[in-house]
Amino acid sequence: MKVAITGKGGVGKTTLAAALALQLAERGWQVTAVDADPDANLGAALGFPPELVRDIVPLGAMRELVAERTGAQPGSMGGYFKLNPLVEDLPEKLGVVHRGVRLLVMGGLKKGGTGCICPENAVLRALTSHLVLRAHEAVILDMEAGIEHMTRGTGRGVDAFVVVVEPGGRSVGTAETIRDLAADLGIEKVWAVGSKVRGEEDREFLTQAMPWAEFLGMVPYDPAAMEADRERRALVDLPGPAQAAYAEILERLLSLQGKG
Ligand SMILES: Nc1ncnc2c1ncn2[C@@H]1O[C@H](COP(=O)(O)OP(=O)(O)OP(=O)(O)O)[C@@H](O)[C@H]1O
Ligand SMILES: [Mg+2]
Protein backbone atom coordinates (compact mmCIF):
# COMPACT_ATOMS: atom_id res chain seq x y z
CA MET A 1 0.00 0.00 0.00
CA LYS A 2 1.48 3.26 -1.10
CA VAL A 3 -0.48 6.35 -0.18
CA ALA A 4 0.34 10.04 -0.60
CA ILE A 5 -1.21 12.52 1.82
CA THR A 6 -1.98 15.74 0.00
CA GLY A 7 -3.94 18.96 0.45
CA LYS A 8 -3.76 22.66 1.10
CA GLY A 9 -1.21 24.10 3.53
CA GLY A 10 -1.82 23.63 7.24
CA VAL A 11 -4.87 21.38 7.01
CA GLY A 12 -3.40 18.48 8.99
CA LYS A 13 -1.59 16.35 6.39
CA THR A 14 1.51 15.64 8.45
CA THR A 15 -0.52 14.85 11.57
CA LEU A 16 -2.61 12.35 9.59
CA ALA A 17 0.44 10.82 7.87
CA ALA A 18 2.03 10.23 11.28
CA ALA A 19 -1.18 8.75 12.69
CA LEU A 20 -1.53 6.29 9.79
CA ALA A 21 2.13 5.28 9.92
CA LEU A 22 2.13 4.63 13.68
CA GLN A 23 -1.14 2.71 13.63
CA LEU A 24 -0.02 0.50 10.73
CA ALA A 25 3.27 -0.26 12.49
CA GLU A 26 1.37 -1.17 15.63
CA ARG A 27 -0.60 -3.70 13.60
CA GLY A 28 2.60 -5.30 12.42
CA TRP A 29 3.00 -3.64 9.03
CA GLN A 30 6.44 -2.66 7.79
CA VAL A 31 6.03 1.05 7.40
CA THR A 32 8.12 3.60 5.56
CA ALA A 33 7.06 7.17 6.22
CA VAL A 34 8.43 9.49 3.58
CA ASP A 35 8.74 13.17 4.35
CA ALA A 36 8.45 14.69 0.88
CA ASP A 37 7.95 18.23 2.17
CA PRO A 38 11.01 20.51 1.90
CA ASP A 39 9.87 22.01 5.19
CA ALA A 40 10.30 18.61 6.82
CA ASN A 41 8.49 17.98 10.09
CA LEU A 42 7.10 14.47 9.86
CA GLY A 43 9.70 13.22 12.36
CA ALA A 44 8.34 15.58 14.99
CA ALA A 45 4.72 14.65 14.21
CA LEU A 46 5.67 10.98 14.64
CA GLY A 47 7.15 11.81 18.02
CA PHE A 48 10.61 10.62 16.97
CA PRO A 49 13.28 11.63 19.51
CA PRO A 50 14.98 14.85 18.37
CA GLU A 51 18.46 13.29 18.52
CA LEU A 52 17.33 10.65 16.05
CA VAL A 53 16.21 13.09 13.37
CA ARG A 54 18.58 15.99 14.01
CA ASP A 55 21.40 14.69 11.85
CA ILE A 56 19.35 13.37 8.96
CA VAL A 57 20.62 14.74 5.65
CA PRO A 58 17.71 14.94 3.21
CA LEU A 59 18.19 12.75 0.20
CA GLY A 60 17.85 15.68 -2.19
CA ALA A 61 20.86 17.30 -0.53
CA MET A 62 23.17 14.28 -0.89
CA ARG A 63 25.09 15.64 -3.81
CA GLU A 64 27.63 12.85 -4.03
CA LEU A 65 25.08 10.12 -3.78
CA VAL A 66 22.92 11.72 -6.44
CA ALA A 67 25.95 12.09 -8.67
CA GLU A 68 27.02 8.50 -8.07
CA ARG A 69 23.59 7.10 -8.86
CA THR A 70 22.73 9.21 -11.86
CA GLY A 71 26.17 9.77 -13.34
CA ALA A 72 25.51 13.51 -13.41
CA GLN A 73 26.69 16.45 -11.43
CA PRO A 74 24.10 17.68 -8.95
CA GLY A 75 22.30 20.79 -10.05
CA SER A 76 23.33 20.27 -13.64
CA MET A 77 20.68 20.86 -16.22
CA GLY A 78 20.62 19.57 -19.72
CA GLY A 79 23.50 17.11 -19.33
CA TYR A 80 23.08 13.38 -19.68
CA PHE A 81 22.15 11.35 -16.64
CA LYS A 82 20.29 8.19 -15.81
CA LEU A 83 16.55 8.65 -15.47
CA ASN A 84 16.16 5.39 -13.59
CA PRO A 85 18.96 5.32 -11.09
CA LEU A 86 19.42 2.38 -8.75
CA VAL A 87 17.76 3.20 -5.45
CA GLU A 88 16.77 -0.11 -3.90
CA ASP A 89 19.26 0.02 -1.08
CA LEU A 90 18.55 3.61 -0.08
CA PRO A 91 15.63 3.19 2.35
CA GLU A 92 17.66 0.74 4.44
CA LYS A 93 20.74 2.90 4.28
CA LEU A 94 19.22 6.30 4.89
CA GLY A 95 16.12 5.77 6.96
CA VAL A 96 15.92 6.03 10.73
CA VAL A 97 13.59 3.67 12.58
CA HIS A 98 11.51 4.24 15.68
CA ARG A 99 8.49 2.29 16.90
CA GLY A 100 8.50 0.21 13.75
CA VAL A 101 8.30 3.18 11.40
CA ARG A 102 11.16 3.91 9.02
CA LEU A 103 11.42 7.63 8.29
CA LEU A 104 12.96 8.85 5.06
CA VAL A 105 13.50 12.54 4.46
CA MET A 106 13.53 13.62 0.83
CA GLY A 107 14.29 17.30 1.19
CA GLY A 108 13.59 19.99 -1.33
CA LEU A 109 13.04 18.97 -4.88
CA LYS A 110 14.49 21.30 -7.46
CA LYS A 111 11.82 23.61 -8.70
CA GLY A 112 12.99 24.89 -12.03
CA GLY A 113 10.39 24.84 -14.76
CA THR A 114 7.29 22.74 -14.59
CA GLY A 115 8.21 19.09 -14.58
CA CYS A 116 11.90 19.84 -14.14
CA ILE A 117 13.83 16.63 -14.39
CA CYS A 118 17.19 17.18 -12.82
CA PRO A 119 19.32 14.39 -11.36
CA GLU A 120 18.09 15.00 -7.80
CA ASN A 121 14.49 14.64 -8.89
CA ALA A 122 15.31 11.51 -10.86
CA VAL A 123 16.62 9.87 -7.68
CA LEU A 124 13.66 10.99 -5.59
CA ARG A 125 11.13 9.90 -8.16
CA ALA A 126 12.78 6.56 -8.68
CA LEU A 127 12.70 6.07 -4.96
CA THR A 128 8.99 6.79 -4.57
CA SER A 129 8.14 4.49 -7.43
CA HIS A 130 10.49 1.76 -6.27
CA LEU A 131 9.60 1.74 -2.57
CA VAL A 132 7.68 -1.33 -1.50
CA LEU A 133 5.91 -3.60 -1.90
CA ARG A 134 5.68 -6.93 -0.28
CA ALA A 135 2.63 -8.03 1.64
CA HIS A 136 2.10 -5.91 4.71
CA GLU A 137 4.43 -3.18 3.65
CA ALA A 138 3.13 0.33 3.57
CA VAL A 139 4.54 3.60 2.37
CA ILE A 140 2.97 6.80 3.60
CA LEU A 141 4.16 9.92 1.81
CA ASP A 142 3.67 13.25 3.53
CA MET A 143 3.53 15.65 0.62
CA GLU A 144 4.31 19.33 0.33
CA ALA A 145 1.25 21.58 0.54
CA GLY A 146 -0.59 22.53 -2.60
CA ILE A 147 -0.22 21.28 -6.12
CA GLU A 148 2.96 22.70 -7.59
CA HIS A 149 5.03 19.65 -6.62
CA MET A 150 2.57 17.36 -8.35
CA THR A 151 3.13 18.96 -11.68
CA ARG A 152 6.69 17.68 -11.18
CA GLY A 153 5.27 14.22 -10.78
CA THR A 154 6.48 13.52 -7.26
CA GLY A 155 3.24 11.72 -6.47
CA ARG A 156 3.67 9.35 -9.40
CA GLY A 157 3.87 5.71 -8.48
CA VAL A 158 1.51 5.73 -5.50
CA ASP A 159 -1.74 3.72 -5.50
CA ALA A 160 -3.85 6.36 -3.87
CA PHE A 161 -4.00 9.97 -2.86
CA VAL A 162 -5.61 10.99 0.37
CA VAL A 163 -6.59 14.62 0.18
CA VAL A 164 -7.06 16.36 3.52
CA VAL A 165 -9.63 19.14 3.71
CA GLU A 166 -10.77 21.61 6.34
CA PRO A 167 -14.37 22.76 6.37
CA GLY A 168 -13.60 25.76 4.17
CA GLY A 169 -13.85 26.74 0.54
CA ARG A 170 -10.16 27.17 -0.08
CA SER A 171 -9.04 23.71 0.93
CA VAL A 172 -11.95 22.24 -1.04
CA GLY A 173 -10.75 24.16 -4.11
CA THR A 174 -7.25 22.72 -3.67
CA ALA A 175 -8.77 19.24 -3.32
CA GLU A 176 -10.51 19.59 -6.69
CA THR A 177 -7.28 20.57 -8.38
CA ILE A 178 -5.51 17.63 -6.75
CA ARG A 179 -8.24 15.26 -7.92
CA ASP A 180 -7.74 16.44 -11.51
CA LEU A 181 -3.96 16.21 -11.31
CA ALA A 182 -4.21 12.71 -9.87
CA ALA A 183 -6.21 11.69 -12.92
CA ASP A 184 -3.50 13.19 -15.15
CA LEU A 185 -0.89 11.16 -13.27
CA GLY A 186 -2.95 8.00 -13.74
CA ILE A 187 -3.89 7.65 -10.07
CA GLU A 188 -7.47 6.45 -9.88
CA LYS A 189 -8.05 6.39 -6.16
CA VAL A 190 -8.46 9.74 -4.48
CA TRP A 191 -9.97 9.65 -1.02
CA ALA A 192 -10.78 12.54 1.26
CA VAL A 193 -10.32 13.10 4.96
CA GLY A 194 -12.03 15.97 6.75
CA SER A 195 -9.85 17.70 9.32
CA LYS A 196 -10.47 20.04 12.28
CA VAL A 197 -14.17 19.29 12.03
CA ARG A 198 -16.09 21.04 14.81
CA GLY A 199 -19.49 19.45 14.47
CA GLU A 200 -22.38 18.41 12.29
CA GLU A 201 -22.42 21.67 10.36
CA ASP A 202 -18.79 21.22 9.32
CA ARG A 203 -19.42 17.62 8.28
CA GLU A 204 -22.35 18.64 6.19
CA PHE A 205 -20.43 21.46 4.60
CA LEU A 206 -17.70 19.06 3.49
CA THR A 207 -19.94 16.30 2.20
CA GLN A 208 -21.98 18.84 0.25
CA ALA A 209 -19.01 20.75 -1.09
CA MET A 210 -17.34 17.53 -2.26
CA PRO A 211 -20.05 15.27 -3.66
CA TRP A 212 -17.40 13.59 -5.84
CA ALA A 213 -15.31 12.50 -2.89
CA GLU A 214 -15.33 9.31 -0.91
CA PHE A 215 -14.53 10.26 2.69
CA LEU A 216 -12.39 7.89 4.74
CA GLY A 217 -13.57 9.83 7.75
CA MET A 218 -13.47 13.16 9.50
CA VAL A 219 -11.01 14.11 12.21
CA PRO A 220 -12.62 16.32 14.84
CA TYR A 221 -11.00 19.55 15.91
CA ASP A 222 -8.91 18.42 18.87
CA PRO A 223 -7.31 20.79 21.38
CA ALA A 224 -4.77 18.04 22.14
CA ALA A 225 -3.13 18.90 18.78
CA MET A 226 -1.42 21.89 20.34
CA GLU A 227 -0.22 19.86 23.28
CA ALA A 228 1.11 17.22 20.88
CA ASP A 229 3.00 19.88 18.97
CA ARG A 230 4.43 21.44 22.13
CA GLU A 231 5.48 18.11 23.61
CA ARG A 232 6.68 16.70 20.30
CA ARG A 233 4.31 13.79 20.48
CA ALA A 234 2.06 12.19 17.88
CA LEU A 235 -1.55 13.41 18.13
CA VAL A 236 -2.73 9.82 17.67
CA ASP A 237 -0.98 8.94 20.95
CA LEU A 238 -2.96 11.47 22.97
CA PRO A 239 -6.42 10.63 24.26
CA GLY A 240 -9.00 12.85 22.63
CA PRO A 241 -11.55 12.98 19.84
CA ALA A 242 -8.95 12.76 17.06
CA GLN A 243 -7.59 9.43 18.28
CA ALA A 244 -10.78 7.46 17.67
CA ALA A 245 -11.23 9.10 14.28
CA TYR A 246 -7.74 8.09 13.16
CA ALA A 247 -8.51 4.47 14.03
CA GLU A 248 -11.68 4.56 11.93
CA ILE A 249 -9.91 6.21 9.04
CA LEU A 250 -7.28 3.47 9.00
CA GLU A 251 -9.97 0.76 9.03
CA ARG A 252 -11.69 2.39 6.09
CA LEU A 253 -8.45 2.80 4.19
CA LEU A 254 -7.54 -0.85 4.71
CA SER A 255 -10.94 -2.06 3.65
CA LEU A 256 -10.94 0.12 0.52
CA GLN A 257 -7.49 -1.20 -0.34
CA GLY A 258 -8.82 -4.71 0.16
CA LYS A 259 -6.45 -5.26 3.04
CA GLY A 260 -8.76 -5.08 6.00
N1 LIG B 1 -7.56 17.47 14.38
C1 LIG B 1 -6.92 18.60 14.66
N2 LIG B 1 -7.47 19.49 15.51
C2 LIG B 1 -6.81 20.64 15.81
N3 LIG B 1 -5.64 21.00 15.29
C3 LIG B 1 -5.05 20.16 14.43
C4 LIG B 1 -5.66 18.92 14.06
N4 LIG B 1 -4.83 18.29 13.18
C5 LIG B 1 -3.78 19.09 13.02
N5 LIG B 1 -3.88 20.22 13.77
C6 LIG B 1 -2.95 21.33 13.87
O1 LIG B 1 -2.91 22.04 12.66
C7 LIG B 1 -1.60 22.49 12.38
C8 LIG B 1 -1.16 21.98 11.02
O2 LIG B 1 -1.09 20.56 11.07
P1 LIG B 1 -0.13 19.75 10.12
O3 LIG B 1 1.28 20.21 10.29
O4 LIG B 1 -0.42 18.31 10.29
O5 LIG B 1 -0.69 20.25 8.73
P2 LIG B 1 -0.03 20.16 7.28
O6 LIG B 1 -1.17 20.09 6.34
O7 LIG B 1 0.97 19.07 7.25
O8 LIG B 1 0.71 21.55 7.20
P3 LIG B 1 1.80 22.01 6.10
O9 LIG B 1 1.03 22.32 4.86
O10 LIG B 1 2.42 23.20 6.72
O11 LIG B 1 2.74 20.86 5.92
C9 LIG B 1 -0.71 21.99 13.50
O12 LIG B 1 -0.54 23.03 14.44
C10 LIG B 1 -1.50 20.86 14.08
O13 LIG B 1 -1.22 20.65 15.44
MG1 LIG C 1 2.97 19.07 6.69
Describe this structure in words.
The chain is α/β, with parallel strands linked by helices. The protein has one domain (about 1-255): 3-Layer(aba) Sandwich (Rossmann fold), CATH 3.40.50. It contains ten helices and eight strands. It has helices spanning about 15-25, 40-45, 50-55, 65-70, 90-95, 120-130, 170-185, 200-210, 225-230, 240-255; strands at about 1-5, 30-35, 95-100, 100-105, 135-140, 160-165, 190-195, 215-220. An eight-stranded mixed sheet has the order 3-4-2-5-1-6-7-8, with helices on both faces. α8 (about 200-210) links the parallel β7 and β8 (about 215-220). α1 packs across α10 (about 240-255) and α4 (about 65-70) packs across α6. It is globular and about 55 Å long. Bound molecules: adenosine-5'-triphosphate and magnesium ion. The site of magnesium ion (MG) has 4 residues, from α1. Magnesium ion (MG) binds near residues 13, 14, 37 and 142.
The level-1 CATH class = Alpha Beta
Number of beta-strand segments: 8
Question: What compounds are bound to the protein?
Answer: adenosine-5'-triphosphate, magnesium ion
By secondary-structure content and strand pairing, the structural class works out as alpha/beta
The count of helical stretches stands at 10
* Residue share in helix: 25-40%
Q: What is the domain total for the residues?
A: 1
* CATH fold-level name: Rossmann fold
Strand content: 15-25%
